[in-house]
Amino acid sequence: MAENFVARRLKISGIVQGVGFRPFVYQLARQYGIKGEVANTSSGVTIHIEGDLENIDFFCIDITPKSPPLAHITDVSIQSESVKGFNDFSIIESQAGTHRATLISPDMSICGDCLKEIFDREDRRYQYPFTNCTNCGPRYTIIDDIPYDRPNTSMKHFKMCDPCQAEYNDPGNRRFHAQPNACPVCGPQVALYDNTGKIIETQAPIERTATLLKEGFVVAIKGLGGFHLAVDARNHDAVLRLRERKRREEKPLAIMSENIDRISAYAHIDPEEERLITSLQRPVVLLRKKEPNSISAAVSPRNRYFGAMLPYTPLHYLLLSYGFTALVMTSGNISEEPIAIDNADAFERLSDIADTFLIHNRDIYLRSDDSIVRRAAGSVRFIRRSRGYIPTPVFLKHKVPHILACGAELKNTVCLTREDNAFLSQHIGDLENLSTYEFFQLTINHMKQILDIDPEIVAYDLHPDYLSTQYAQELEGVEKISVQHHHAHIVSCMAENRLDEEVIGLSFDGTGYGTDGTIWGGEILVAEPDRFTRAAHLSYVPMPGSAAAIKEPWRMAVSYLYNAFGEGFWDMDLPGLKEIEESRVQFIVEMIKKSVNSPMTSSLGRLFDGIAAIIGIRNRVFYEGQAAMELEMTAKEIGDTVYDYEWVEEADVRKILPGPIVRGVVQDVKNSVSASEISSKFHATLIRLFSELCDDLRLETGLKKVVLSGGVFQNSLLLSGLIQALEENNFQVYTHTHVPTNDGGISLGQALVAAAIAGK
Ligand code: ZN
Ligand code: ZN
Ligand code: FE
Q: 479 CA distance to ligand 3 centroid (A)?
């Protein structure tokens, strides 16, 4: 044997099973004339290779960058081995139980090869809406146990035909071990029904659906992670009808277009956004509207953005090929309930909304909403991290025990940890109704099963009334650790940035239960994973009517005005309060004076609401954060002029007084300064104020790292302005780019706080 004939053993970890990794290795080995074998193991894939040293080196160099699109390699270890004298290269069948600790791929959009097939008249999968291969298709949503093999997926009901089985068995085929492999002969089928559950006889259900949509009907379409409700986005009456039936007044509706050209007709899209929207995860991307455009004004009212996405299943591509500029594709639910996934459930819950149902017989085991992202301050920002990204873990700096973190109440997600992986769940929703709570429990059980995690610690929010808190407290045989909401926000951002030292944390949101029982939300913390001190916060004001003050920002306006002027604001003739009856305003003032149902809050989100109402932008919101968002969108460029601001120091805590800012805003309103200018100035004020506060804290503590988290940072003006101001001031600034800055990311922080506390 030649002197330079060597053998190596490679151990690959990450998402390397069920993604065509072994066939890829097989072909790469053949390309370099290498002999040996590849096998799945409990921790990933092991490869034995032998051949010329040079070819072995090339193989090792290529293995990561050339790996299949759905593979996600986290570690490669290479060791010398003795030559065993293999005659060829082969794939070893995996044994049961070998895949337990491995990672499961998310659901991914159809790949280019499969797309070609469904539009190729000569191909046996021509127009087949469930075409997939190892490089694409459903994963997470169709698994109900591990290992990831067909009998543990909802494809178990479909026996592969001979040609499909042959593809499945052939290591040279891109459908080798593609668990959801199917074709028109052996796989799932679509069918069209009316809303009474009666089948609509047709040879071409998808074409017929396209016709119905063009005629203005609302169609419920079963997709990958659940049902969508679809209408033609250019048909204003149809969009209004959908909104009315779904009871969704103003919250923007997502739209889907066939390709980038179609999207460019109604929205601006820069190269980075194009990269994001065409990525395999196919998220909904917020894109700036072009004006004028042909999309119904009811799709995204009073908003500068459209939430647009490209098709991600063969079914979507087939449907959109009938020539739509865009289809509204909003989640198949009423208001904030979980989206329907089951056919029977869909008929029951959606028959008052949809006229027709395009369904199929491949079950969805776990619902997964569309993910929503945007580009802001130079990076990807998650608004909702769900389909396409779940269950790819966040990779942690240190190993942690098995922990379950239950999340907060709104935009709930849960998080499970194992070694140095943190698995966030898909978007679960607002834990305010029973069906969402059931989905929350189902998701926890499902994830424990498929990730093989048995939590020893459970982390939960400090708020005693959250359903997630109650769930945690009822668990038995686990260590229970409660975590303050804003601390969890900061540690969530630290975790994804792999920070574990003391930092200055700006934790800004609408609502979170404080250690003193008040409602926090404008918090500057000095924080570490296992502890924090509250260094500064917005001064408390009452929230007259409690939850009603969130839905009706004018109540917050009254609270801030009363705080700034006493009863003197009475005859100021402010535009926002004009439409409110005087007796109601008076009543609210009485509530404040007598502290009736008026919890105290330091929330920055509420200050945004209050300012929005004072300047006449919005008195009542239809969805969380609407007033604040419209205030942001009113603003133009941020300039140098700011309102007066002030903080006072009491018992080592700096309290930021809202009074001077509110008085400045009111003065401008009286001088007929435009809402746009006031909003810009308000943003500029906050940026300067917070960056000065950080300066102050650096002097005191020596800390130079600032972490930004909380729902308020969905405001991209504030986010980018603050990053810039702090960086100019020589701070190192850390923000969220992997999980949402809103409460959708909070379970990650809870888990890491619990890990730090338990580890002491
Ligand atoms: Zn494919
Ligand atoms: Zn088949
Ligand atoms: Fe929050």
A: 24
